Amino acid sequence: MKTHASWDFDTDVAIIGLGPVGATLANLLGIAGIKTVVFEREAEAYHLPRAVNFDDEVMRIFQAIGLSEEISQDVTLSPGMRFVDSSGKLILDWSRPSVVSEMGWHPSYRFHQPDLERVLRVGLSRRPNVQTRTRSEVFALDADTTGVTVRFEDLTNGRLMLCRARFFRVAPELFTASHTPASPLRSAPAAAGRSIGRFRPVVDFRSDYNFVRRGKAFFVALRRRTK
Ligand SMILES: Cc1cc2nc3c(=O)[nH]c(=O)nc-3n(C[C@H](O)[C@H](O)[C@H](O)COP(=O)(O)OP(=O)(O)OC[C@H]3O[C@@H](n4cnc5c(N)ncnc54)[C@H](O)[C@@H]3O)c2cc1C
C-alpha cells in the first residue's frame, strides 16, 4: 500500500491564501519555473484596502517579477506618516525622504490594495507553472518527512480533494488561529520545519480618534485601552 511519503508530488509548492504576499511569492516561484499551486477560499480579491504603504525593497521585488511598471502607474509617492496621541502630541515622526534609494526606487509608496492585488493576479495568469485555484478552502495540512498533503474543498461543488506538495506557505490568519481545533494547521505539527511561512502576531486596538489627512501626511492617535 502506498504511504503518504511515497506519493508522487502534484506540485513543488502549495501556497494557501492568495493575498498580496501569497500572490507575490507565487509570481516569484512562477518566474523561477517552480511548479506551484495556490489555494484561495474567495472568488475575487477583497474589494477594500487593508495595507496602504510599501517601500523600495518591495518595489524591487515587484520589479523582479516583471510587474513594477504596471504597479507604479497606480501608486503615489508617500512623504511618510506622523503618529500623534489623542491630545495631538507627536509619538512618532515617520517621514520618508523623496530621494531614490540604492534599490532604485523611492523609500515609500502609497497604494490601493485591490488594484495591486489585481496586477499580481494578472502576473500569475502569465505563469504556466502556477495554477491558481480560487473557491478552494484548505481544511487540513498533513505533514510528513517528505512533504505535505493539502486537503481542500472545492467550494463550487462541495468536492473534497487533496494535493501533495513538497513545501507549503500558509496565510497569516492560519498561523494566528493554529491552536484552535478548526485550524488546518492542527494536523501539521511537523510542518514548522517545512513551512516557508512565518509566525506573525496580530494586535487589535481601538481608537476614538479619526484618521485625519493634514497636508501630505496622515495622522492617527493611539489611545491606551483601559478595559
Ligand atoms: C489594517 C491593516 C493595515 C495594514 N497595513 C499595511 C501596510 O501599510 N503595509 C504593509 O506592507 N502591510 C500592511 N498590513 C499587513 C498586510 O496586510 C499583511 O502583511 C498582508 O496582507 C499579508 O498578506 P498575505 O498574502 O500573507 O495574507 P492575507 O492578505 O491575509 O491573505 C490571506 C488570504 O488567504 C485566504 N485564506 C485564508 N484561509 C484560507 C484557507 N483555509 N483556504 C484557502 N484560502 C484561505 C484568505 O481568503 C485571503 O485571501 C496591514 C494589515 C492590516 C490588517
Provide a compact summary of the structure:
It is built from 5 helices and 13 strands. It has 227 residues and is of the alpha/beta class.
SSE topology sketch:
Elements: E1 11-16, H1 20-31, E2 36-39, E3 53-54, H2 56-64, H3 68-72, E4 76-77, E5 80-84, E6 90-95, E7 109-110, H4 113-125, E8 130-133, E9 136-143, E10 148-154, E11 159-170, H5 172-176, E12 212-214, E13 217-221
Parallel strand pairs: 1-2, 1-11, 2-8, 5-13
Antiparallel strand pairs: 3-7, 4-7, 5-6, 9-10, 10-11, 12-13
Question: Would you give an account of this structure?
Answer:
The structure is a single chain. With 227 residues, the chain is an alpha/beta fold. It has a domain at 4-52 and 111-196: FAD/NAD(P)-binding domain. Helices cover 19% and strands 29% of the residues. It has 5 helices and 13 strands. It has helices at 20-31, 56-64, 68-72, 113-125, 172-176; strands at residues 11-16, 36-39, 53-54, 76-77, 80-84, 90-95, 109-110, 130-133, 136-143, 148-154, 159-170, 212-214, 217-221. The strands form 3 sheets. Strands 8-2-1-11-10-9 form a 6-stranded mixed sheet. The protein has a 4-stranded mixed sheet with strand order 6-5-13-12, with no helix packed on it. The chain has a 3-stranded antiparallel sheet with strand order 3-7-4. The longest helix is centred in the middle third of the chain and has 13 residues, at 113-125. It is globular and about 55 Å long. Residues 1-6, 189-203 and 211-227 have low confidence and may be disordered. Flavin-adenine dinucleotide (FAD) binds at residues 16-22, 39-42, 50-54, 137-138, 171-174, 184.
